[in-house]
Write a structure and sequence with these properties.
Elements (H helix, E strand, L loop, with lengths): L2 H13 L13 H9 L8 H7 L2 H11 L13 E10 H7 L7 E3 L22 H29 L8 H16 L8 E9 H12 L4 H15 L6 H16 L4 H7 L17 H18 L10 E3 L6 H10 L7 H9 L3 H10 L20 E8 H7 L6 E4 L25 H19 L4 H5 L10 E8 L1 H11 L6 H17 L22
Antiparallel strand pairs: 1-3, 2-3, 4-5, 5-7, 6-7
């Protein structure tokens, strides 16, 4: 080929329309990750790579480059769908607490959780009967409030002629569940599905194995086993039927076809198998809990608004030290920051050092080290509403433990009957009060295993505190999305308060929000 012809061919490759695009199905997640990784070391196409790669070769490659050289980006390429069914709401909140997470959970709006049952922790001893009685009482109250609020809604909202009866019933039931869900205890069983990459799964498993709760540690073990063991393959049932038809028609059984159709697949036999409890997280959690207790000295928790936008200029050192302590106490960020800001530089540096003292070679820094965000919202809301806010991943979230210290929310909203109007106020308050009393009795029982299980008795109406750090674009996104009229009033109110806080501090930016006024009653028949 002449030099001129060669130049012409290059020009065609660069400027022609020879781009090849295709989707890939049927490759094991780890094999696909290996094939993708080969783009950096081979001129082969993905099809060519997949044809020559076996699961055994993929495992050998990953054992070398992933574990010995720390090429964790390879694990980002192996995406694994998983189902996690019949776990407590408490465990589900912990499970999904990943910044790189995609999934869906059962909705408290569209499903009746009376059918779910609940999780009973082991080790309750003499407290087991009291635990079951407390949970059963909350489910009874949940049932009563569901039925009572549905009846109240029907009294005040007539069915439009153009609306079908089943749609009317379904819509008002969802509104009633929005109220009743405040009474569901954290012991309530739920189910969820997730699609995560192997790196996230490895970190998730390690974090779960480090939990203080036995259920959550066991969940980490089951996730690891599910990823490294045989997967449930949706094609197997159809494959079995096909093999039976072929055998009936020919009188023979083709072993090669059977192996291909019924082949056992393991989602991540290599990438997750070494995930263990994270000593860095465990030791640092204990140290920071002790440091926060010593620093605050048992002072009273100050009253705080639903949403507190932390204003003022603070050094990165002050923000970091405060952020490290915040998840390990029940004080507001503002109150904790005030104490930290009063310390000398040496003491602040000592607090920051606690956050890295136990860090291993491959440990990522704690989430608290994500400092420097322009907007910091300290939010105090019910656990049920928090679960929806928790789904926002393009921000840094610092969560505090669940406690009775902040009281509970009342599920009243503009435009719908209040608990008092529905004749449910007394029953609701009695149920919440009894649940809190049972929580305290279990917490103070003197039995370590029982005390650790007390949080399971807290209802979703319990107030919890969490810090959300983000940029302006994310604040606009959350406020616009969560203020929508179809949403639950709990997080609609939080979204509105976030907007109001930004408007007060940065009035020139307020016009960029396209937000719904949550103080205006909504049409309860519109979803």
């Amino acid at each position: 080929m002449s030099e001129q012809a060669g130049a012409k061919q290059v020009e065609t490759d660069v400027y022609g329309s020879g781009t090849d695009v295709y989707a890939v199905q049927g490759a094991d997640p780890e094999v696909l990750a290996y094939a993708m990784a080969k783009y950096s070391r081979s001129a082969l196409t993905l099809k060519e790579s997949l044809k020559e790669i076996s699961a055994q070769r993929a495992e050998q490659f990953l054992n070398t480059f992933y574990f010995q050289y720390g090429h964790r980006s390879i694990a980002d390429l192996a995406h694994i769908p998983m189902a996690i069914e019949r776990l407590s709401l408490l465990a589900a909140i912990c499970l999904v607490d990943e910044q790189r997470w995609d999934g869906q959970e059962r909705s408290t709006r569209y499903q009746d959780f009376r059918k779910s049952g609940w999780f009973t922790p082991a080790g309750l001893g003499d407290q087991a009967d009291a635990f079951r009685a407390a949970v059963s009482a909350l489910f009874g109250a949940y049932d009563g409030v569901s039925q009572g609020m549905l009846a109240a809604l029907k009294r005040v909202i007539a069915r439009p002629e153009e609306m079908k009866a089943d749609a009317y019933e379904r819509t008002l039931k969802a509104r009633a569940f929005d109220v009743a869900r405040y009474l569901l205890p954290l012991a309530t069983n739920t189910s969820l599905g997730q699609i995560v990459n192997a790196r996230t799964l490895e970190m998730q498993v390690s974090r779960l194995l480090t939990s203080e709760f036995a259920e959550i540690r066991e969940l980490g073990e089951k996730l690891r086993a599910a990823a490294t063991g045989p997967s449930w393959d949706v094609r197997h049932e159809a494959g079995k039927s096909l093999m039976e038809e072929l055998e009936a028609a020919s009188g023979m059984r083709d072993a090669r076809v059977e192996q291909m159709v019924l082949r056992e697949v393991k989602a991540a036999p290599t990438l997750v198998k070494y995930a263990v409890a994270n000593e860095y997280q465990r030791a640092t959690r204990e140290a920071l809990t002790q440091a926060a207790a010593e620093l605050m000295g048992g002072v009273e928790i100050e009253t705080a608004p639903v949403v507190d936008l932390i204003e003022g200029v603070e050094s990165m050192e002050i923000e970091l030290a405060t952020s490290l302590l915040y998840p390990h106490c029940h004080y507001s960020y503002r109150q904790m920051r005030g104490v930290v800001a009063g310390l000398n530089g040496v003491r602040v540096a000592e607090l920051i050092a606690v956050g890295t003292r136990h860090r291993g070679r491959h440990d990522e820094l704690l989430r608290a080290f994500h400092v420097g965000a322009s907007l910091k919202f300290d939010i105090l809301m019910d656990v049920g509403g928090f679960r929806d806010m928790h789904r926002h991943r393009r921000c840094t979230q610092l969560l505090q433990g669940f406690t009775d210290m902040h009281g509970w929310e009342v599920p009243d909203a503009p435009g719908q009957p209040t608990l008092q109007e529905a004749g449910l106020e007394e029953a609701y308050d009695a149920a919440m009060g009894a649940a809190f009393a049972s929580y305290r009795a279990l917490r103070d029982s003197g039995v370590t295993e029982a005390a650790e299980s007390a949080q399971y008795l807290l209802p979703l109406g319990t107030r919890c505190r969490a810090m959300f750090k983000m940029d302006f674009a994310e604040a606009v996104y959350i406020a616009e999305l969560r203020s929508g009229v179809a949403g639950h009033y709990s997080y609609r109110r939080v979204a509105w308060e976030m907007y109001e806080a930004v408007k007060r501090q940065y009035p020139g930016m307020a016009g960029m929000f396209r937000i719904e006024d949550v103080t205006v009653p909504v049409d309860l028949l519109k979803r």
